[in-house]
Amino acid sequence: MSKQPPEVFYLPESYRIRYKNEHWNDVGQKEEWQLPTYLQASHVASVTGAKSVIDVGCGSAFKLLKYLGDLETTGVEVGPALDHLRKAYPEGRRWEHGDWQADFGRFDLLICSDVVEHLPDPRVLLSFIERHEPYAVVISTPVRGRKSGPPINRCHCMEWEPDEFYSFLTNGLKEYGFVFSIESGEENAAEGSLKSMVFTGIRGLPISRENATISEIIKR
Hints:
- The chain contains 6 helices and 9 strands.
- The strands form 2 sheets. A 7-stranded mixed beta sheet has the order 3-2-1-4-5-9-6, sandwiched between helices. A two-stranded antiparallel ribbon has the order 7-8.
- The model has no long low-confidence stretch (mean pLDDT 89).
- It has one domain: Vaccinia Virus protein VP39 (Rossmann fold, 3-Layer(aba) Sandwich).
- The chain starts with 34 loop residues before the first helix and ends with a helix.
- Strand 2 (72-77), helix 3 and strand 3 (94-97) form a beta-alpha-beta unit.
- It is of the alpha/beta class.
- The longest helix is centred in the N-terminal third of the chain and has 14 residues, at 35-48.
- 26% of the residues lie in helices and 21% in strands.
């Protein structure tokens, strides 16, 4: 894979990207991380009347099944995590191998929680979303910790500031309008920033507003 200048991803020109990152396996995780993302996704599903959801990088799928288990669920994972899901939930759920070029069908809602920062070229996520044409998307990623990069967390390739990630999403997914919120968190030496930003996009939404509620926006 050819290295891209950081500006391609709406990062500062001087930002240092980590192109060889370590793999993160969160099979043993439950609600330790990303809970606000799934609470938001559950709210979006309720407001939009979603019947199907695909979770890209669903990990243990604990939060997916707890908060969106009433929907038709598809989880996308790789390696040991995928093996675990197929053994733990052999019936009634759909588990797919993570392939950014795959087409798994159409879904009402797409979740991608703290995955994009692990991608050496995060534009593959944008193409994946466009291919699956969800009505709503909920995407989260940590707010940048180390300003000049690479991220403190060695599993991360890159991290954004909110305005940068907003530009990355809105320029890459022009059919969606986005609102976002910042979830509080601390920074530590091992993981870097634990402050997370949650972006919610609605297909065909013409207006983007920070911290607006999805119910309020859809009624406009």
